[in-house]
Design the sequence.
């Protein structure tokens, strides 16, 4: 548009700071979906505007980012705290958050690119470059986290942006500059800390955690991040490395990489010991210490499971495999859920079995404890960490029973899984609480009953079907058994795996 009377002010709704504040204040406070959509639009508009001075552009990007924080937190809580979101609801929440983060990261990265390239007037960004870098790295890490929550597909190109922004912080000597990240939010951070938080979460095997566990892991990593170490040379306690020039996620240090000035080695340092102390504190008190901010309330058992996972993957030496893995190529017939597993083990008793539960996967490797498989077509919403499955190898007759331990997608409809097998054969049994009359319940026995060494029984039952500490009576192989609780072994959305000490009932009772 023609600038009348020689005016040099850009023709843009946010060209005046006072007007920009009014526009941002008008963003709907009670509609976070619409608010994030509008704020993402303003990020894109500012990023594409031609006439803004670099300093003013950076100021606008920060104002927009600050206005969005309450809405990102609100929708994130809704996504993570709602146990039964429909596919439509889940996709709407995920898309709103991820799309905003994408535009926010692009806008901040564009400002830092101006500063890095020495563009005209960009030296004025110098004073805010540390804060912009911290926020940009945190936003990029958040974008990655939301991809972890869906187990992919992953945009590895984000690692190129993370490396570029962190390398700029190193070059300009502000990588360790600590500062407050957002107004009225306690705590400080630095570009190095944000970089470490991103690489440590990636290195912490999020593909083996549920969405809730990924959120807890991210919070725990933030809690311990001040103890992480980043160095230029390999050291004895170093477990991971990343190449700032490669644009790829970090790798575990299986063997020394070829030396290059862009290599960075990182370890969790003192955080490993602090993590063990936290595990001990939670076990002794059965409560989460008040100084550990997890962003929500979680059962101690859930937090302990995440801490134990982190302790394993953070160890300087990788955990050894219990069983050798062998490469194979064959097909599997798969069904899922407690009802699906029950149906294939007892087809006569499950005449109404839903055939849509049956899928075909391709095995890639096997071991005594499980296998890895390709899922050519992801169907429905059931595939998740902890899901119960039954599997029949091609040409076989028996059904293996297990659970999903790892999951990631390379496209929205195709992925790969790691499965832990509970039993190579299983049988349907009848059980009921000791002393109770009435119709017996159905369970799935995973351990053989015959043999002198068969003193323990592992049984799959529907979720919440058995009270804690309850004795059970079971019928199997024409005999009656008394089962005394020996602990829980596993649980998922629709099942529990319970462990019992087994005693034979007197046949005369």
Sequence:
């Amino acid at each position: 548009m023609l600038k009348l009377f020689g005016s040099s002010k850009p023709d843009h709704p946010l060209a005046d700071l006072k007007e920009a504040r009014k526009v941002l204040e008008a963003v709907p406070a009670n509609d976070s979906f619409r608010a994030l959509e509008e704020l993402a639009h303003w990020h894109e508009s500012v990023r594409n505007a031609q006439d803004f001075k670099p300093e003013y552009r950076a100021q606008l990007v920060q104002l927009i980012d600050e206005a969005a924080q309450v809405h990102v937190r609100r929708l994130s809580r809704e996504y993570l705290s709602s146990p039964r979101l429909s596919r439509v609801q889940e996709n709407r929440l995920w898309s709103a958050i991820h799309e905003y983060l994408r535009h926010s990261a692009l806008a901040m990265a564009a400002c830092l690119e101006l500063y890095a390239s020495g563009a005209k007037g960009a030296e004025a960004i110098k004073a805010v470059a540390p804060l912009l870098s911290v926020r940009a790295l945190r936003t990029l890490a958040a974008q990655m986290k939301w991809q972890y929550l869906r187990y992919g597909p992953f945009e590895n190109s984000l690692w190129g942006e993370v490396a570029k922004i962190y390398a700029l912080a190193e070059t300009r000597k502000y990588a360790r500059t600590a500062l407050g990240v957002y107004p009225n939010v306690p705590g400080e951070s630095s570009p190095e800390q944000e970089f470490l938080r991103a690489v440590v979460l990636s290195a912490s095997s999020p593909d083996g955690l549920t969405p809730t566990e990924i959120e807890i892991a991210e919070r725990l990593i933030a809690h311990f991040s001040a103890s992480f170490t980043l160095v230029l040379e390999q050291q004895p306690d170093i477990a991971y490395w990343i190449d700032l020039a490669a644009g790829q996620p970090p790798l575990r240090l299986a063997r020394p990489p070829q030396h290059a000035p862009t290599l960075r080695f990182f370890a969790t340092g003192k955080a490993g010991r602090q993590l063990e102390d936290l595990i001990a504190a939670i076990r002794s008190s059965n409560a989460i210490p008040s100084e550990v901010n997890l962003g929500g309330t979680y059962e101690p058992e859930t937090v302990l499971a995440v801490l134990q996972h982190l302790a394993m993957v953070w160890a300087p030496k990788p955990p050894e495999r219990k069983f050798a893995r062998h490469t194979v190529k064959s097909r599997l017939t798969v069904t899922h859920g407690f009802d699906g597993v029950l149906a294939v083990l007892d087809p006569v008793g499950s005449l109404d079995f839903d055939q849509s539960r049956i899928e075909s996967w391709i095995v890639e490797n096997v071991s005594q404890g499980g296998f890895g498989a390709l899922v050519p077509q992801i169907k429905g919403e059931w595939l998740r960490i902890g899901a119960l499955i039954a599997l029949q190898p091609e040409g076989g007759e028996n059904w293996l029973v297990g659970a999903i331990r790892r999951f990631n997608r390379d496209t929205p409809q195709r992925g790969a899984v790691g499965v832990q097998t509970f039993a190579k054969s299983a049988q349907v049994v009848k059980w009921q609480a000791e002393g109770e009359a009435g119709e017996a319940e159905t369970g799935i026995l995973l351990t053989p009953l015959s043999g002198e060494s068969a003193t323990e029984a592992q049984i799959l039952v529907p979720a919440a079907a058995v009270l804690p500490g309850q004795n059970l009576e079971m019928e199997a192989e024409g005999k009656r058994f008394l089962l005394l609780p020996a602990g829980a072994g596993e649980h998922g959305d629709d099942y529990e795996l319970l462990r019992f000490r087994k005693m034979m009932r007197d046949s005369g009772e």
